[in-house]
Amino acid sequence: MMPFPATRLRRLRGSGTFRGLIRETDLSPAHLIMPAFVTAGEDIREEIPSMPGIERYSISKLVEHAAEVAAAGIGSMLLFGIPADKDEFGTGAYDDEGIVQMAVRALKEAHPDLAVITDVCLCEYTSHGHCGIPDPDGKIQNDLSVELIAKTAISHAEAGADAVAPSDMMDGRVGAIRYQLDEEGHSEVPIISYSVKYASAFYGPFRVAAESTPSFGDRRGYQMDPANGAEAVREAEQDLEEGADMLIVKPATPYLDIVRRVKDATGAPVAAYHVGGEYSSLKAAAEKGWLDERAAVLETLTGIRRAGADAIITYYAKEAAEWLQ
Ligand code: PBG
Ligand code: ZN
Q1: Structural domain contains residue 17
Q2: Structural domain contains residue 7
Q3: Please, are residues 192 and 163 in contact by the beta-carbon 8 Å criterion?
Q4: Closest CA to 263 of 232, 294, 220, 293
Q5: What are the distances in angstroms from CA 211 to CA 31, 53, 178, 230, 245?
Q6: Is residue 194 part of a domain?
Q7: What is the reported pLDDT for 1?
Q8: Which residues form ligand 1's pocket by a CB distance below 6 Å?
Q9: In the predicted model, is pLDDT for residue 20 greater than 80?
Q10: % residues pLDDT > 70 (the chain)
Q11: pLDDT over threshold 80, residue 124
Q12: Out of 10, 166, 199, 215, which residue is the most buried by the measure of CB atoms under 10 Å away?
């Protein structure tokens, strides 16, 4: 590059037209996935205190909410279920009449064009709140948990889910899910794997929303250590070998280097999950008048795309899509 004064990088920043010509990263509603919480019961719409603007819906209200999400230009939702009852083995997760299974059927009937991705995990359904089944010492048993998680994924596919997203971080679950989906005639259902999921403080607001805070211990025995990067690439490669179609890195903003590394190392489709705590931090600052919410959110989402994310899962999806339209 020629040095100054021949080179003046400001020249192409001088007008909106020139800035538009050289803009590297685009952000549109097509890149966004809206998470949603469905709860057992009738006619329920309740605000989630830790995530202002996000609500839990019973099925009929979720169907109405989905119409608004679709009208904003969002093509897919990521569904989390909050069952009426929990037990030691999380049986509600793989019940064919469970909350997610019923919600998927209702959503697909009302909005066939809206893609429904289901979060596949046990933590919302277990009495202890862990993503798998603990042994008597409280250690989460990998292979038993994988069996139940695969069963959950199959029942979501049977209900009509367009994709399944295992978020438990057990080893080998993607392979088990892929094998069983294929056996059961669901070879076209993609697996969007939470491949790189860190043990993060930013999940706090979500656990209030999903009522999934562990009753003992923490998730560091299965979720990743925030200090590790090379391990993220190994997780991603392993999931791809097991049959994952798309990889999730989560959370997003503290891990943008990981989004980039995973994207560059694998070339696979990557989604970044802008999680509850990232959402709530922006909301809180905006409510206090400390941040221009719209500008800060669009800047954040653009940064996540620039880091290498093809898709972004964000509680801001609907609002951001409305701002972008
Ligand atoms: C459950 C799950 C979690 C999230 C998605 N699936 C939370 C956790 O592991 O505690 C996080 C979503 C968010 O924080 O917004 N396995
Ligand atoms: Zn879980």
Answers
A1: no
A2: no
A3: yes
A4: 232
A5: 28, 17, 28, 32, 29
A6: yes
A7: 74
A8: 119, 121, 123, 131, 167-168, 203, 206-207, 212, 219, 275-276
A9: yes
A10: 100
A11: yes
A12: 166
Identify the active-site residue in 61, 86, 197, 283: 197
- Told to judge if 263 belongs to the known catalytic residues of this protein, a careful annotator would answer no
Mean pLDDT of 281-292: 98
| Closest CA relative to residue 298, chosen from 320, 282, 280 | 320
Is the pTM higher than 0.85? yes
Q: Percentage of the chain with pLDDT > 90?
A: 98
Please state the separation of Cα 148 from the chain's center in Å: 20
Q: Which of 290, 240, 289, 234 is nearest to 258 (CA)?
A: 234
Q: Whose CA is nearest to atom 14 of ligand 1?
A: 203
Please identify, by atom number, the ligand 1 atom nearest to the C-alpha of residue 169.
16
**What φ, ψ does residue 119 adopt, rounded to 5°?**
-75, 125
Comparing CA positions, the residue from 36, 57, 70, 9 lying closest to residue 206 is 36
CATH of the domain at 289: 3.20.20.70
Q: Report long-range pairs for 62-65 (Cβ below 8 Å, ≥24 apart).
A: 62/36, 62/38, 62/103, 62/106, 62/107, 63/106, 63/107, 63/110, 63/111, 65/36
Structure tokens at 266: 């694998």
- Give yes or no for a contact between 39 and 58, defined as CB atoms under 8 angstroms apart: yes
116 occurs within a structural domain: yes
173: containing domain: 27-324
Average pLDDT over all residues of the chain: 97
pLDDT band for 72, please (50, 70, 90 cuts).
very high
CB atoms within 10 A of CB 275: 25
Span from the CA of 83 to the centroid of ligand 1 (angstroms): 16
pLDDT band for 299, please (50, 70, 90 cuts). very high
- As a whole number, mean pLDDT of residues 13-26 equals 98
What CA–CA distance (Å, rounded) separates 308 from 266? 11
Residue with tokens 């931090």: 281
Identity of residue 88: E
